[in-house]
Amino acid sequence: MRALPLYPPLGTDGPSGGNTLDMFTRFDLFAKFHKTACRDLTLFSSSEIRAASGAAKACSGFEYPSAAAGYSPDLFTSCLFQVILIAMQTVRAYYDLPDRESCSAEIREIRPITDKAAVILDKTIFYPEGGGQNSDRGTINGVALLDVQERDDEILHIVTADDAARLSPGPAKLVLDPLRRRDLTVHHTGQHLLSGIILSLTGKPTVSMHIGEEVCTIDVDTPDFSQETLIMLEEAVAGAVEENYPVVIHHCPPEKAEDFPLRKIPPRGEAVIRVVEIQGKDFSPCCGTHLQSTGQIGMLRILGAEKYKGMMRVSFIAGRRVLRDSRLLRHNGSFISHALKVPVGEIAEGVRALLDKNHSLEQALKAREEESALFKAHELLREPGADSGNNTLLSASIPDAGMEEVLRIGRAAQKLSSRVILLAALRDNKFAAFCSVKGIDIRNFIQEPMEAWGGKGGGGPSFFQGLFPSGEALTAFVEALSAIPSLQKH
After folding, report:
1. pLDDT above 70 as % of the chain
2. How do residues 57-68 score in pLDDT, each as one tens digit?
3. Which helix (H) or strand (E) covers residue 354, if one does?
4. The domain at 369-482 falls in which architecture?
5. Dihedral angle, C-alpha 77, 83, 89, 94, nearest 10 °
6. Could you say which of 3.40.718.10, 2.40.30.130, 3.40.50.150, 2.40.50.140 is the CATH number of the domain covering 92-176?
7. Which residues is 431 bridged to in the sheet?
8. What is the domain partition of the chain in residue ranges?
9. CA 441 – CA 462 distance, rounded (Å)
């Protein structure tokens, strides 16, 4: 915080109780304030802003002899106007009070926004979404925040329309969700450390980042990362966490930003560049919230990397998320270990052996199913009347079979007979028709009766399948087709 003298209003200071603090001193105060505040309001506390604003208002009531202090009337007017505008902005107390979980503020305005409402405060401890970091959550006078956004230099605290009706301009108590803030701050600081180490060890820059609710990602400008490289990077981050490097915030004008070895280009149009330094590891312009040292990250795990738009998207988690992830993996590992009767350290080999065994069993089962289908096809074709000539229909309903079994039986029978074969899977209310004779289009005699009984389906000249809304409709459809004595070639 800057060392700026704070003066009370006119008529209240000095041993005589008179206006001993003259207007010249007051104008000097808010002129100094204006000079710095135009670069960065966050350098000032709310009490400093109020003092400078009060000084500006006090000065405006007097005729100011500009030559006395070297200030022109135009400069005075400009300073006064800009100081008042600055004083109207929401003070970003999440920078000045990063560890505060609550504070008092003033509700200046409640503004309808579509089906919700935005609360405008004189100061806030809630970080608005930006810089790849999600917004804070908490309450304003007990009303839960849905979101915090910054638009046109205004910080909007979004609440439901119903909750907005419970609020009114005036004093407010802000209560932060500290667990969410801590989680986001840990991951944002962890991202700086990870990106800085990737750049220093591989020379590959981070192009973009996202602090997600479950997993965080960075996109690194490289076509590939080997598993060995990811492990090397993760170990380097762990070492930096253990070394507990300090995290320092610098404020500088844009022309001074080049004094820092920045990892990325600072934003344009900013009066003050906020540079986050991890001592010896990273320098990056950033508006997010950060820890005071790398040791507070606790732990960072790289979950993996995948190709994304010609780059590598690296996924990671940090802090308590690593603990929760480890706890879940241990729970699942213990369950699998118990089920496979192998030590936790050998469950990968145990699962692989189980998969190999299951694959062999599936292959053997498939062979038995094909044998069974062939046997049932022979049985079907040996039934009375099944030896009729070509162009006749052989239909059958199989009560206990599903559609997959019906398809296997039908395909086997199709290879053994030149007849049109129609099989119904009553369990699934489905049917399938097969024909191996060229020149017969089974759609010509199936489509119309199927639709007449409420069925839907489709296929080609030699294979057709469909579905009925009920078993009764399917049975009636099969019986209707069975009454056709002969099928002509089409």
Report:
1. 79
2. 454 444 444 444
3. helix 347-381
4. Roll (3.10)
5. 160
6. 2.40.30.130
7. 424, 466
8. 23-89, 92-176, 181-325, 369-482
9. 6
